[in-house]
Design brief:
Chain A: Belongs to the RNase PH family. Chain A: It comes from Myxozyma melibiosi. The complex is a heterotrimer of chains A (about 270), B (about 250) and C (about 290). Chain B contains five helices and nine strands. By secondary structure, chain B is α+β, with helices and mostly antiparallel strands. In chain B, the strands form two sheets. Chain B has a five-stranded mixed sheet. Chain C has a single domain, classed as GHMP Kinase, N-terminal domain (Ribosomal Protein S5, domain 2), CATH 3.30.230. Helix content of chain C is about 30%, strand content about 25%. Chain C is built from seven helices and ten strands. Classes of the chains: A alpha+beta (about 270), B alpha+beta (about 250), C alpha+beta (about 290).
Chain lengths: ~270, ~250, ~290
């Protein structure tokens, strides 16, 4: 239910107080409780489900396919999503998918997905957002993060690798150099390890001089503006502003404030 | 490559079942309290479906295939059902993206809508709407039957008056043997039908047969499917009662 | 008997004459770089406002239509619509598209539109136009021969052009929006991403690129978009964070201010032209840009 004007102004002023006061009593940098589980779908390479306390729920399944790496420019990650109650191909879909896709493509080194010289994995990340009350970006990104952590790729049989390089000229019944994999799933190797963990994309709302992470729908509605921050291994790798409200007065403060805000988001 | 043996001479199927055994059924209701009025998850073997029901509420217009507007004008004194299904791209072995208006999915939605319009006591809720959303997370044969069972459970959870559960089950004919509750491999290999009954009665709510089969073979298949439906009704009823008991215990009555 | 088969000219008609071709006087160079930017407004009398910008290989045309009444449900503010189109001839945009599975890279178009929308919306006084719609169509007539790494540059050019076109349409704005792109090299040096060509963009020196939209005279920023451009293999040493980010934002902001000066000059000149046109031969003294600089 939309807020009335007086409710809106009350919320806006309580958010811009110092220290701020959030309607659910949370701290500025506190997330809402959530319920997360990974590995729920055995038919996928990686899967996860996250449920927020407001009913928002997202399920992500990741499938890896073996493709031929023809050029360096082949997109190795594809993100798609389906949002309940929103027409497909809406701006929200594009926003969610391209934001995550950019973050992943910029941080995921191609070597992590390559199998042998000519072949590489391509990750298909598909999400279903069953319900969302607040902006689904944070929810979707967290679920993708969890699913990527859960992702396992079949182990390559090393002999096949050698054979493919040596017998590449001789004709056999199989296509030349097609990679062979261990059929035992216990042997599969995780995509993520200590050296690489997936990026996270978070939405933060600005109100006055305050920054709020994990905003509820109402908070995003009255905020002065919102920023999308992409994270990767403790570093900011992307930053973008979006406006969550179509009103002209929501000009958000000068550059200093943004950076100030960011350093606080970082902490 | 050797083909897997669908039905061995010893009477065992690929997954080790006998001809009259259904796959393991796991169901739960009231799984999404925060986002819907009624919800359920059902797993039949490796087929997994989530169902959310919102309603009965004020009609928002626009049903399956845009037929909502006309229908509302026609059946003003009955409840309007809208069914939406999302088949996840990762639900099959090979990833396959279905577009939003995939014909097969649309047809399934329409089928489910028709079944439940009969099963729900619609005259008790005139000028209102029940929105049913289905999410197919993984498929291993019997998508339609799992969806029907999931909707049935979710409607019960939402407290919508119904004549009885609608339970669905598939049965196939392999050579001269009837097999109950087929998985994907079996489905691809033999003629099969999906049947839905109203509870443990002999009232048939749906019979769908899309493959060619001799008329003399039809009857044993129907009989097997019906007994499968009755079995599923017991499983679903047990789950609903279990859930009801646990809720009652929580309220301390 | 008069000739009825032809439509005769009105009696007041005069022979057609062409105005002298636009001189290069509006070509101005911002002081901090040697890059030349060509900007011109009011090219299309049919549109409410229009602007055309040329910079390096980018040729960008923006048409603004509106405010026009909307039949949709009531809204107390105007609705802004932004759409971006790459023309098929605009460099290798189509190559990019084909690689990603057929057609154009519509995702890139959409995310550009998204950013331009977010940059413009805070500047427009939408509440002055209830029940109406303002549409901004951005046409990328020609882009760099290779897009890799130059998206931010194009974005900045689009925002600047759109800002000028909005003013040309006579839509009430708080301030003119201009944008500037920046890049961060491996050593952490921040430079304006203005005069880079596609050949340079292939170099691995750059670790991050960004674009900032700002309302210069109000010292307010309306949009920020910064991305690390490389995979983690080479970027592990540096990141855009804390002080580095402040430097990026400051540099981009100062770039946007420089571009603003150019836009001001162009807008002032077009205003002069308009006044001259209206008042016939009467010479109007050249307006100083001060009123807009404030």
């Amino acid at each position: 239910m939309p807020l009335s004007l007086s409710e809106e102004s009350y919320l806006a002023s309580s958010l811009s107080l110092r220290p701020p006061c959030r309607p659910d009593g949370r701290d500025q940098h506190q997330f809402r409780p959530l319920d997360a589980s990974a590995g729920i779908l055995p038919a996928t390479n990686g899967s996860a489900r996250i449920r927020l306390c407001d009913g928002g729920e997202c399920i992500v399944g990741i499938k890896a396919e073996v493709v031929e790496s023809r050029k360096e420019d082949v997109a190795l990650v594809e993100v798609q999503c389906d949002i309940a109650g929103v027409q497909s191909n809406s701006p929200l879909h594009t926003f969610l998918c391209t934001t995550l896709e950019t973050a992943l493509r910029n941080t995921l080194p191609a070597s992590r997905l390559s199998i042998i010289h000519r072949y590489t994995y391509k990750l298909f990340i598909d999400g279903i957002i069953l319900d969302h009350v607040s902006h689904p970006l944070t929810l979707f990104s967290m679920t993708v993060y969890l699913a990527l952590l859960d992702t396992r790729l079949p182990k390559l049989i090393p002999s096949a690798d050698v054979a493919s390089t040596t017998t590449s000229t001789s004709s056999s019944d199989q296509p030349i150099g097609l990679p062979q994999f261990e059929s035992d799933w216990q042997e599969s190797v995780p995509l993520c390890d200590k050296a690489w963990s997936p990026p996270l994309v978070q939405l933060a709302v600005l109100a006055g001089k305050n920054v709020f992470v994990d905003p509820t729908g109402e908070e995003a509605g009255v905020g002065d503006g919102a920023i999308v921050v992409s994270w990767h291994q403790g570093k900011v790798v992307g930053l973008r502003t979006v406006n969550t409200r179509d009103s002209s007065k929501q000009v958000f403060s000068a550059s200093r404030d943004v950076t100030e805000a960011l350093t606080r988001v970082v902490s | 490559m050797s083909r897997p043996e669908i039905y061995s001479p010893e009477g065992l199927r690929i997954d080790g079942r006998r001809w009259n055994e259904v796959r393991h059924v796991r169901c739960a209701i009231n799984t999404h309290q925060a986002s819907s009025d009624g919800s359920s998850i059902i797993e039949q073997g490796n087929t997994k479906v989530i169902c959310n029901v919102v309603g009965p509420g004020e009609p928002t217009g626009g049903g399956v295939g845009g037929s909502g507007g006309n229908q509302r004008a026609k059946d003003d004194n009955r409840v309007i059902l809208t069914v939406k299904a999302v088949v996840a791209p990762f639900s099959t072995i090979d990833r396959r993206k279905r577009s939003g208006n995939d014909n097969r999915v649309q047809e399934m939605c329409l089928t489910i809508q028709h079944i439940f319009e009969e099963a729900v006591m619609g005259h008790l809720q005139p000028r209102s709407q029940i929105e049913i959303s289905l999410y197919v997370l993984s498929q291993d044969g019997g998508m339609l039957q799992a969806c029907i069972n999931a909707v049935s459970l979710a409607l019960v959870d939402a407290g919508i008056p119904m004549y009885d559960y609608v339970c669905a089950c598939t049965a196939g004919m392999y050579d001269k043997e009837v097999l109950l509750d087929l998985n994907r491999l079996e489905e691809n290999d033999m003629p099969f039908l999906t049947m839905a009954t109203l509870g443990a009665t002999r009232k048939v709510a749906l019979m769908q047969l899309e493959t060619r089969v001799g008329i003399d073979r039809l009857e044993p298949m129907m009989a097997a499917a019906m007994s499968g439906c009755h079995h599923l009704r017991d499983v679903m009823d047990a789950e609903v009662r279990k859930h009801g008991k646990s809720r009652l215990a929580r309220t301390g009555v | 008997m008069s000739d009825r088969r032809r439509i005769l000219v009105p009696p007041t008609a005069r022979p057609l004459t062409f105005a002298p071709a636009p001189t290069e006087s509006s070509q101005d160079s911002s002081s901090s770089s040697k890059t030349e930017i060509y900007l011109r407004t009011s090219l299309f009398p049919d549109a409410s406002g229009s602007a055309y910008l040329e910079h390096q290989k980018h040729k960008i045309l923006v048409l603004v239509n509106g405010p026009r009444p909307q039949r949709m449900s009531f809204s107390s503010t105007a609705k802004l619509l932004v759409d971006v189109k790459f023309l098929p001839v605009s460099s290798d945009a189509h190559v990019l598209g084909i690689q990603q599975g057929g057609g154009f890279d519509t995702d890139l178009e959409k995310s550009l539109a998204d950013y331009i929308y977010a940059s413009l919306v805070p500047a427009i006084r939408l509440e002055r136009y209830p029940k109406s719609g303002i549409s901004v169509s951005v046409v990328v007539v020609s882009g760099p021969p290779r897009w890799k790494g130059l998206v931010k540059q194009v974005t900045a050019a689009c925002v600047t052009t759109a800002g000028a076109a909005l003013v040309d349409a006579g839509i009430e704005v708080l301030d003119v929006v201009t944008a500037c792109a920046v890049k961060v090299s491996k050593e952490g040096a921040v430079s304006l991403d203005l005069d880079e060509t596609s050949e340079d963009s292939e170099s691995v020196d750059t670790v991050a690129r960004g674009v900032i939209s700002s309302m210069a005279s109000r010292d307010e920023i309306t949009g920020v978009w910064v991305d690390d451009d490389t995979t983690s293999e080479s970027a592990s040493s540096r990141s855009i964070e804390g002080e580095a980010l402040v430097a990026v934002l400051k540099a981009a902001n100062s770039g946007a201010v420089e571009i603003r000066k150019l836009v001001n000059a162009v807008l002032a000149r077009s205003l002069d032209e308009l006044l001259v046109e209206k008042k016939g031969k009467k010479k109007i003294t050249k307006r100083s840009a001060e009123s807009m600089d404030s």
